[in-house]
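Try this one yourself first.
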């Protein structure tokens, strides 16, 4: 079972609020979503690095 990272959960929540018209899809929101995308990619890379190190230690 894989869990979602905090940035991914936050992105999903913000998207849901935009769909419900609680938040506007403006320049500020686009900038925030871009930053969350960048952070999410960094988190995924860090997780992959940890998993690779764990796999190397088992061998």
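Now uncover the answer:
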């Amino acid at each position: 079972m894989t869990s979602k990272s905090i940035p991914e959960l936050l992105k999903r929540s913000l998207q849901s609020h935009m769909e419900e018209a609680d938040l506007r899809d403006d320049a500020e929101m686009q900038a925030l979503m871009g930053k969350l995308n960048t952070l999410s990619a960094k988190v995924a890379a860090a997780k992959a690095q940890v998993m690779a190190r764990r796999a190397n230690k088992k061998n």
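Discussion: Residues 27-58 form the longest helix (32 residues). The mean pLDDT is 92.
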